[in-house]
TrEMBL record:
It holds the Pfam family GSH_synth_ATP. Pathway: Sulfur metabolism; glutathione biosynthesis; glutathione from L-cysteine and L-glutamate: step 2/2. Mg(2+) binds at residues 149, 151, 373. It catalyses: gamma-L-glutamyl-L-cysteine + glycine + ATP = glutathione + ADP + phosphate + H(+). GO terms for molecular function: ATP binding; glutathione binding; glutathione synthase activity; magnesium ion binding. The gene is GSS. ATP binds at residues 149, 310, 369-378, 380, 403-406, 430, 457, 463. Gene3D superfamilies: 3.30.1490.50, 3.30.1490.80, ATP-grasp fold, B domain, Glutathione synthase, substrate-binding domain superfamily, eukaryotic, Glutathione Synthetase, Chain A, domain 3. It comes from Phyllostomus discolor (pale spear-nosed bat). This is Glutathione synthetase. It is an enzyme of class 6 (ligase). Keywords: Acetylation, ATP-binding, Glutathione biosynthesis, Ligase, Magnesium, Metal-binding, Nucleotide-binding, Phosphoprotein. The keyword Acetylation applies. Its EC number is 6.3.2.3.
Length: 479
């Protein structure tokens, strides 16, 4: 690679329109052949007609040292999430102002309280998470790894990310760039995620019990989920897919709080639904409570979902909090803190007032985040300013946090999407690392990183992931 670095990674290749179009056709056909697939927006409940998941024509440069740093801190993040999920006092304190104003978080918290009062029946805990980062451009031009968020529920694209390296190797091979093709890292998060589920299933200890995948009615990203299901089936672990509605109608607990659905015992509940308000009605909330009360391994259990809220992320960045949650682990604390961007509470009081004043004075340096997942919820620029003006004297502001805006250095790449012309865009990337841990009682029996996801989007979009139609799948090209 030319030392010019991030800005012009594939340099002259991006100049030749005809070559780009031919390459794109080859890349798309290879993506389809590899199973880099999504259902279509028109037919989100059927696999009769499918298309390719959007992806970049070329892999994108990622500094090798930052990739290593992100991998190295993943086990620390696993420990941290697990510690937060077990610390009811910390969760209660941290979320107390937020749940007064945010009904979604409040409902999750209610279930958490109910389960604690009844006593937790679950003894095996499984975390499948994905910690996401961007590469902040420092004043001296060097890039730094900064965490955007950690996803503790329904962290997706581990399946499709296992299939994209072959596509980028293909593109580089077509160009005769054999050495470069060999630098694309192999990646198999779906296998690692399945290993975590398999371990939890084994520790649950009932050979006939099943894995229950809580699925959405309309699921475009089914092939991503199937990749994990297929890995489990290869280990003789059977998965059933059901909606919250099905659980509500056909689910029950026995006197030991074992979970049964359609008369079959469930060892592990894997949520690929239930992370946003629109996914719940009264019936679904009832089903969620039933699942949480059971002794089945929930991935995640309700406390671990709460540990992934933006409010918790902000609170973790406060002086002394990591030290209290991970006592005697100063090296882990230092690795974690090095990835934190500026995070600010908007709770009523002087600290929140000051954060708001700073954001209003320099809106381009901040992002306003509500307690939501799934992309498209954050506010930037003029919209953020208006929201802050409206919220500033209201307790409602406590349901948001303010975050430093990360400004990576843009580079050129082509974002390939069904129905869109092939053209070069100025882009930025977000790196995710998948983490898996399993705990039995107080004993951690698995803690590992299991692969990565690179997503790339055009710079004109402030927010949004692949499912939101903004970012596309990519691979890191270690530089
Ligand atoms: P969600 O839970 O909706 O995925 P995120 O915090 O991941 O929320 O934000 C969604 C998207 O917004 C990210 O994928 C990223 O593109 C952008 N984003 C979020 N936080 C920042 C930030 N601090 N700086 C720059 N971009 C951000
Ligand atoms: Mg995100």
């Amino acid at each position: 690679m030319e030392p010019a670095g991030m800005a012009n990674s594939w340099g002259s290749l991006l100049q030749e329109q005809q070559q780009l179009e031919e390459l794109a056709q080859q890349a798309v056909d290879r993506a389809l052949a590899e199973g880099v697939l999504l259902r279509t927006p028109q037919e989100p409940s059927s696999s009769d007609v499918v298309s390719y998941a959007p992806f970049t024509l070329f892999p994108s440069l990622v500094p090798g040292a930052l990739l290593e740093q992100a991998y190295a801190v993943q086990m620390d993040f696993n420990l941290l999430v697990d510690a937060v999920s077990q610390n009811a006092a910390f969760l209660e304190r941290t979320l107390s102002s937020t749940i007064k104003r945010d009904t979604f978080t409040a409902r999750l918290f209610d279930i958490h309280k109910q389960v604690l009062e009844e006593g937790i029946a679950q003894t095996v805990f499984l975390g499948l998470n994905r910690s996401d980062y961007m590469f902040q451009r420092n004043a001296d031009g060097s890039p730094a790894l900064k965490q955007i968020e950690i996803n503790t529920i329904s962290a997706s694209f581990g399946g499709l990310a296992s299939r994209t390296p072959a596509v980028h190797r293909h593109v580089l091979s077509v160009l005769g760039k054999t050495k470069e093709a060999a630098k694309i890292l192999s990646n198999n998060p779906s296998k690692g995620l399945a290993l975590g589920i398999a371990k939890a299933w084994e520790l649950y200890g009932s050979a006939k019990a099943l894995v229950l995948l809580i699925a959405q009615e309309k699921e475009r990203n089914i092939f991503d989920q199937r990749a994990i299901e297929n890995e489990l089936l290869a280990r003789n672990i059977h998965v059933i897919r059901r909606r919250f509605e099905d659980v509500s109608e056909k689910g029950s607990l026995d006197q030991d709080r074992k979970l049964f659905v359609d008369g079959q015992e469930i060892a592990v509940v894997y949520f690929r639904d239930g992370y946003m308000p629109s996914q719940y009605n009264l019936q679904n909330w009832g089903a969620r409570l039933l699942l949480e009360r059971s002794c089945a391994v929930k991935c995640p259990d309700i406390a671990t979902q709460l540990a992934g809220t933006k409010k918790v992320q902000q609170e973790l960045s406060r002086v002394g909090v990591l030290e209290a949650l991970l006592p005697g682990q100063p090296e882990a604390v230092a690795r974690l803190r090095a990835t934190f961007a500026g995070l600010y509470s908007l709770d009523m009081g002087g600290e929140g007032d000051q954060a708001i004043a700073e954001a209003l004075a320099a809106p381009s340096r901040f992002v306003l985040k509500p307690q939501r997942e799934g992309g498209g919820n954050n506010l930037y620029g003029e919209e953020m300013t208006q929201a802050l003006e409206r919220l500033k004297d209201s307790e409602e502001r406590a349901s948001y946090i303010l975050m430093e805006k990360i400004e990576p250095e843009p580079f050129g790449n082509c974002l390939l999407r069904p129905g869109s012309p092939v053209r070069v865009s100025q882009c930025i990337s977000e790196l995710g690392i998948f983490g898996v841990y399993v705990r039995q009682g107080k004993t951690l029996v698995m803690n590992r990183h299991v692969g990565h996801l690179l997503r790339t989007k055009a710079i004109e979009h402030a927010d949004g992931g692949v499912a939101a139609g903004v970012a596309v799948l990519d691979n890191p090209y270690p530089a």
